[in-house]
Amino acid sequence: MSTNSCRYPFLLHQPLFKPPKLYPHTMAACVRSSRTETPQSNSKIDDHEFSNYVKYCRPNFNDLVSCVPIPGKTSNILRTNTHTVVEENNVDPVGKIGDLWLRMKDEARSDCEQEPILSNWYFCSILSHESMESALANHLSMKLSDSSLPSGTLYDLFLGVLLGDQEIVRAAHDDLKAVKQRDPACISYVHCFLNFKGFLACQAHRIAHNLWSNGRKILALLIQNRVSEVFAVDIHPGAKIGRGILLDHATGVVIGETAVIGNNVSILHNVTLGGTGKVSGDRHPKIGDGVLIGAGTCVLGNVRIEDGAKIGAGSVVLKQVPARTTAVGNPARLIGGKENPIKLDKMPSLTMDHTSHISEWSDYVI
């Protein structure tokens, strides 16, 4: 296939943009061909296991109230009745990312066999790249470029950030797995990578946040503006976001400058994590690990949504929500009451269950 048919800067200027080979393999990895794997059911989490979860699944943000460092070089293991999750000092081996990238290439080839008309697009977007960094930089640059902001310029910028900060790539890896596991509409990893604007907006934000943190605020704000125009997702580059994030549909999501979001959080469309007015300083919500925030929700002010909490769709939250509880309504109230709220026994962001305990708070009948 002639590369001249691909309108992608790195292919038209291969000597300049050829990415380094980051993931050498002595032999091809075995890639599963199943495209319809079903996520494992989430088992119940008792108090002890829940405590272990929130202890070992923390984002590395110093201003997250409940953030605690992980000491030593020991393996942190969380066991449930159905599976075991192992993390080594919160660092994913490069091989895991490389394996997922090989899986995505296999999925792309399968898609090309089913729809040959897409072969050129898949070649330019996935198959011609040696690493996820290169493909992500290229795909975002094509999405966010315009007549005055060339894709080649953005590609150089994005690739430089991704190669210089592998934490972004590890977070993207976790985000891909989160979408595949939690969203039944996601048929493959490559489908998410190419087509899910929530995933793409989140990765563009990670790049913008890196630039913001390194004093390149004008560039960071420019990326924020382009993301809001292209994806209808407005995340201030100062906001801090953990790993394993699902922005489901994502349209209308607004996240303020001093917001902090933990790991394994699921947020639906039209959610606002905003301020209460013209208050300056630390003025936006802090979202704990494993939180589920339903569609159309507004969380306003410097309030905490504690680990494993669930916010019902259309709620307006102005006060702290305790861990493992459910808040619904406008203004939001705890199911079971403030004095004895019903405690959730599963991580809501993983189960994506929006309707449990509905009989305890609503007598609405159709």
Describe the protein's architecture and organization:
- This protein has a domain of 168 residues: Orthogonal Bundle (serine acetyltransferase, domain 1).
- Helix content is 38%, strand content 12%.
- The strands form 4 sheets. The protein has a 6-stranded mixed beta sheet. A 5-stranded parallel beta sheet has the order 3-6-9-12-15. Strands 4-7-10-13 form a 4-stranded parallel beta sheet, with no helix packed on it.
- The longest helix is centred in the N-terminal third of the chain and has 21 residues.
- The protein is globular and about 60 Å long.
- The relative contact order is 0.10.
- The N terminus is likely disordered.
